[in-house]
Metallophosphoesterase
Amino acid sequence: MRTAYSFLILFALFSTALKAQKSRSEVQVAFLADVHLQDLYGTPEDNDYKGVLNPKNNKPTLLRTMDAQLHSTRIFNENYFAFLAALDDIAKRGVRYVALPGDYTDDGQPLHLKGLARILKEYSTKYSIEFFITTGNHDPVGPFAQDAGKDDFLGTGGKRQPIFSKEGLHKQDPATELPTIITKDIAKMGYLGVTDYLGEFGFLPKQVYKFWGTPFSTYTSDDYSLDKAKEAAKLSNRMYDVAPGFTVPDVSYVVEPVEGLWLLAIDGNVYIPKNANGDASDPKNYKGADLGYNNVLTNKKHIIEWVTKIAAEAKQKRKTLIAFSHYPIVEFNDDASPEIEALMGKGKWQLDRVPQEEVAQAFADAGIKLHFGGHMHINDTGIRTSQKGNTLINVQTPSLAAYIPAYKLLTLKSNNIAEVETIAIDNVPRFDELFELYKMEHQFLKSQNAKDIWDNAILKTKSYHEFTDYHLKELVRLRFIPDDWPTGFKEFLTRVSGYDLILIANSEGIALENFMNHKNDNVLWKNAEAKAKSFTKYNKITLNDYKKWTGLDLITDFYRIRSADQLVVADVGSERIKQYQALIVAFEQRKPNPDDTLQNNLGLFLTILDKFLNGAPADHFTIDLQSGKVIDLRK
């Protein structure tokens, strides 16, 4: 009996040891994209100005106006608190490695770079977290430093407070603005400034790294040494010709922070000269880098060669290679980009940022299996298999500064299995810390009878999740609908109800506009109602539920679904999604009419929505890094 009991104890201890060993063998990396940190409580070194006094905490605060952030695809202020909440969550989970795929500051200004460095050092010291950064189109905004500033900081009395790095860059409007503040800490840094402030977070080698290299280093992991890496890390040794006569930095690097894991941090920025005969040292003579990898294929070809070399070495050394960069390398609209262009028009919806298919093919054949990107502020997964049979998975990491605020957590398991989980940052301490200041701004705008004043109901939100959702709603109302949508179609869709749409889908032999003009025609309307009633009953949906939402609700949910992907269910609801899916099916059965522009546009819109609702898993899933197979863990 004692022998059996002793055996059970030994077996239990052995099992516990095995579990602990398995746990230790799993490596986790968190990916935080598009943080867009603005240091709310930073202080310029060359100016005494510290911001507007917040009556809630009696602290001077450097914040942007609510009006500015409700016209932007990102939040400028509250993301500061969301970043801290995300780091706290990461620390609580015991994650040791964190990658930031670009756009970690507002625009690469010293004020915010110093604030970011301070925060990262604090968490690194307190929790032993190693941070790895790569560039984005906001940091740096160009290869070299340039004077700049913003005219939409919030100032005393609710007026705007312009802050610029140099006199003469801004002309004050005394009616709505305070006198301009001048500080060099608001200039936009180039590569030199960014790497000076943030070099210790991956841009430069460390003693603790097992390997570190650049596209220009000549050593391999076999003959690696820290001294060689330090020499290779000098910015002067990391230059290339983006065009003849235009030499700029490339701060890509590969690092082995822990045995067996290689992180490939790609600098996807390509700053093409505006004027080939212009001054190569003029920071204003370079285009922005927001087009991403489409320009890499033409003006930064050495990246593909380097990635191919690193991937081959990683495979030969049996290292797990995980790539990350700011830009997506696979189409991120669930393959709906052609329909989006047909509906919205060329150049709309940031379609110029969609990577060409050649990009995915090139990186897949170079040996990249898994890549984490940002830039688009959306949650998405893209999968491509090249003609040679190589599969590439591109994981789009949401932004903490937009709906839906989240980060990606990668867990590398045994047998080449990677688990990816999307961690939403819903509840953020102090997210409402600035609301009293926004009330002051709103009152000032009302006193000026300003046009299109933002809805102050956003100040009643109870969580950061709700705040970002409201931000998206206002963004749809104030910017997306006016700027992106075809005039006739947006006028139609914003005045119909869901009930109108399901009846339209079940009507026959009449143009959409004519059908809407005959709502009082009992024969047409009742025939459509009868057919819709039968259709919804078959699909186990209540017809009257379509009366509970409008076309504007549909447009808003359209943007929610595109931004949050599978995470959207919590806000839209499974029943509403089921109604949308049934509407799509019903409309597909409607007889096509090439001469009915409205019907064609509605068809395109619903096709796009259908693709958004049926993309690859984007919440919690596993990837077989050998076969490229993706398994949805939500099902």
Residues 1-24 have pLDDT under 50 and may be disordered. The radius of gyration is 27 Å. The longest strand covers residues 417-424. Residues 518 and 524 are 8 Å apart (CA to CA).
